[in-house]
Fold each of these.
Amino acid sequence: MAEIGKDILKAKELLVRGELVGIPTETVYGLAGNALDINSVAKIFQVKDRPQFDPLIVHVSDFSSVNLFVSEIPDQAKRLAKAFWPGPMTLLLKRKQTIPDLVTSGLDTVGIRCPNHPLTIQLLQSLPFPLAAPSANPFGYISPTKASHVNDQLGSKINYILDGGESTVGIESTIIGFEADQPTIYRLGGLSLEDIKSVVGSIHVQLHSVSNPRAPGQLASHYAPTKKLILGNIPELLSIYGSSHVGLLSFQNIDESVDPTKQRVLTSSGDLLEAAQNLFASLRELDQLNIKIILAEQVPEIGLGRAINDRLRRASFRIAD
Ligand code: TXA
Ligand code: MG
């Protein structure tokens, strides 16, 4: 198992030596390595069991470092960065050759983000290179929002996890790319569509592309628990599947007919920020219970609710049972 602690210097030393470290961010925990060192980057793909066609996000401490790695920053990207960095937003920008091909899977853009977590900002400021970091989960599984989640799944493959507490946003960053100056959202995430529109006006949303996805986070089946998850109206689902072998993931209310230890409520007050924070931990807990299926319901399709519903839909889509 990995050591879990708050020692930034130790994290720095491991990263400088080319090793990987679990790092906290406000969205989810990342599996970080030196983005400019192909051996470190190759380790990330190995440890995650991730296909090399799936590019990595590069994390920097502030906007001024972005110029070292990208050749062009559209005006709308500058506006977004000014408004929302550090924060849960990744911008796809034309890359310079300073970023290795392996990081971008050969694409001509690189995903860049300034994460908003005090420990990770300090760590990035102390390093002479940026950090490539995908979510710290095995490919296709639920993203981690606590250091213990990272340890449970990747603890045997890495030495250290920097413990920054629970991720406050709880859902991965919103990914935005640009055609000329026109922004397009490729992954819904921790920054809401409404907030983005308030800065750039109109924006395209392009989430699904089944073959050769520009962002495999868009793959229909992703962010999935091991147990089968069925999405719908909970009372109707209970009348079909019965209440004895199921776990429930509901937005606000407990269902009287099911054992309360087999239920997770995302937010009793109906707060979508709280629902996003609780989503992945609740899914993991349900996945570990002695149940056969998880029955879940969607949340209101506004604000962060869009990204929550997106993750629930992908969690429910499985190619094989
Ligand atoms: O919140 C987050 O974004 C977290 C934290 C750790 O920063 N990271 C994260 O990374 O979710 P990952 O690798 O699990 O998801 C990143 C997504 C992938 O679906 C990848 O395909 C897409 O970003 N991506 C990265 N670079 C890209 C690029 N140049 N063009 C298109 N998609 C890209
Ligand atoms: Mg991921």
Note: The two ends are 30 Å apart (CA to CA).
Amino acid sequence: MTPIKIIANWKMNGSHEDIISWIDYFQNNVEIKNQINCILCPPLCYLDTVKKIVLNNKLDLHLGSQDVYADLDHPSTGGVSGRMIKDLGCNYVLIGHSERRIHFQENEGILLGKINSAIKNKLNIIFCVGETFEQREGGITKKIIKKQLRILRGLPVGLISVAYEPVWSIGTGKIPSLESIEDVHQVIKSGLKDYFTNKKDIPVYYGGSVNLDNAEMIMKLDSVDGLLIGAASLDSSSFSGIVNKITAKK
Ligand code: PGA
């Protein structure tokens, strides 16, 4: 069975000191079992710090990057390539997060460049999709999600997973009904099967206001293979609590 993924997206938060105490708490309060993978996505500038702590303490934690740059054929000041991300010890990368689509104008062309860079460097892609509040109200959630997924057609199936993150749910404390999460996840899974010839089941994670109170019931849904957690992952005790609750049920 593919392990459940519990992913911490720290966004633009944290400091060297915070990271040391976060990991210290996690290490002393969580015993990770085989069926769960925890993936930390700190800011790029702290990837090396996290990597060193994880290696020195032989921790069962995986590393992910919140972003990657496309390989460009011109010099790129400030760019961080897929090769560099890999070199920093990451095996995962988030691509298509709505905050990047919206605030950094990441369109399909840009996303494809990032996807190609990730694939070339054998980084597992966590591709984020999700509808806005207006799109949900307008009844076009599934249409929007299918459109966002089209970019994945024909890519190497083993490196792809999807995170369903309704834009209106991120950081708001609101989540869709459980029926709606299950419904959209099923749409994603069946839609993706048409894109890949070997029909492998692509893991689909839920993200958007996941916390200690709702994580367990979301994870109980058949089509939820993991969680992508923002705000609640900043506090090591709530992230650890979520991991422990899910571990206890497995
Ligand atoms: P949130 O963020 O858990 O704070 O809603 C999730 C995300 O943006 O990945």
Note: The chain has a mean pLDDT of 95.
Amino acid sequence: MLSEATITSRLHTQLLGRVLEYHAHIDSTNTRALALARGGAPEGTVILAEEQTQGRGRLGRRWHAPPDSSLLLSLLLRPPLLPRQAQRITMICSLGAIEAVAHTTSLEAQVKWPNDIVIHGKKLAGVLCELGARGQELAYIVVGMGLNVNLDVAALPELLAPATSLSAELGAPVDRLELLVTLLEAIDRRYARLIAGWSPRDEWRDRLATLGQAVTIRGEGEPITGIAEDVDADGSLCVRTPSGELRTVIAGDVTLRTGHSSSDTNKP
Ligand code: BT5
């Protein structure tokens, strides 16, 4: 079991975890973080849980995690960004997860556009980003992350796509505290840089497993089929269609199909 005291004593961050709640059981860390956000909680608030009874994925889907097996957390941030730039926050969180995985296990994870973290094409973690807007501006963003650490994915029900965990990849259990601390520190560093004007686009692009692949993207209107060529500063995917046209698909607005797998994203 993790505990608030052990996490706080190990954590060296500027912002993340300055308020930290740890729950043995909760409905959903995102639901809790959204309620705190609406109540004016400070950015940097982190909600952690060992077990969720209503763990959420995108578009009403479920997130499954046996007790004590995973990292289940939500971060509350109030970045000076526009709602259409919110994917930048997902980008730094995914990059933080990839860094933490590499540091703790030497495994190399990648991003499956737009929001999944995969190892060898299998889903290791999912990110659920939920926003609040004030007029044209972003009032808050809650980033929920579920990362499979020490679990047998064969026990997970109703998976849309192949999944994996760190212990399954390594054949040995992983220290969740070290992984968590490294994750929060890696995101914290990138968040400070982002606020100072840095774009995570190039680093994120280098970690994208989707580029060069044939994709079909279903959103509003006609599906777009083509080769995923690039991403822009806001994480939108640039797809070269068979007619040679380059179409830009916003991360928050689509269903992606690559090969046999699929994923959907919430509208920001
Ligand atoms: C996601 O949704 O991948 C975002 C998941 C975010 C979960 C975190 S946990 C902490 C925080 N609090 C919450 O309530 N949620 C966040 P999506 O792309 O819609 O993927 C959901 C789909 O992934 C499901 O329909 C399953 O097919 C599959 N799935 C469920 N649990 C999984 C797991 N542990 N590992 C891999 N795939 C899983």
Note: Residues 260-268 have pLDDT under 50 and may be disordered.
